[in-house]
Amino acid sequence: MLPKHAVLHANISTGRTADFVDAILELGAARASAYVCFANVHMLVEAERNADFRQILNNAAVAAPDGSPVAAAVRWFRGPAQERMAGMDLLPALLRAAAERGQSVYFYGTTDDVLEAMVWRARWELPTLRIVGAYAPPFRPLTAEEDAEEVAAINAADPDLLFVALGCPRQERWMAAHQGRIGACMLGVGQAFRVYAGLEPRLPAWARKLWLEWAFRLWQEPRRLARRYFVTNTRFVYLMARATLENRVGWLPVVA
């Protein structure tokens, strides 16, 4: 399994893209009821605020550094030089590798329109990929009976990889709650579904290297993301500064 390095109170997996792809496909081939998180700034701040969510993140078989600041923080806290491992990039890479190795996939989340576009693209580009299911659950809490039916349907389809797009932190909580119940490697990829489906543009690589993806997404969805980015990102900078001082000085007074 991939080595992990502490960033704040989260354990972040490290390695190259090929290492992540191999580790995840190995979990799928083993039918390990495990889950993969793609940790961005929002997720790390949520883990600092909520001990329950921190445990969910740290129990992930793989916690990929989805955001550029998270990848940079690995190095900042005396870890290895680490590239960003975004769900938007690993999703197509994993689908290609799954097609090559004969592994099956299942898409769970978002809407029927998004799933239809995803399946169309995947079948066009990867005709040998085994897509064994795609389902968009209702946008409300499921009853116990509905949840049991969905679990049974997923297990009957028997995927190696189950891609989950319910939004953070809902998808991470869902995967943790279904560990041991679903016999697949679950991956919380969130917005990657819409990007792969071609319904949302991806920022050019040069802009991503300058850490401008947050600004691009804020421009796309200002009402939904303004608070998250301005409040959460500020909180992340504070937590990083505080942790840096604690590492250097060894002690700081507690501040609420």
Give the helix proportion (percent range). 40-55%
Number of helices: 12
| Strand order, sheet with most strands | 4-3-8-7-5-6
What count of domains describes the coordinates? 2
Measured on Cα atoms, how large is the radius of gyration?
A: 18 Å
- The N- to C-terminal Cα distance equals 36 Å
User: Overall 3D geometry?
Assistant: globular
Q: Helix- and strand-based class?
A: alpha/beta
Give the SSE string: EEHEHHEHHEHEHEHEHHHH
**Approximately what portion of the residues adopt beta-strand conformation?**
15-25%
- Uncertain parts: 249-256
Q: Could you give the count of β-strands?
A: 8
Describe the main β-sheet briefly.
6 strands, parallel
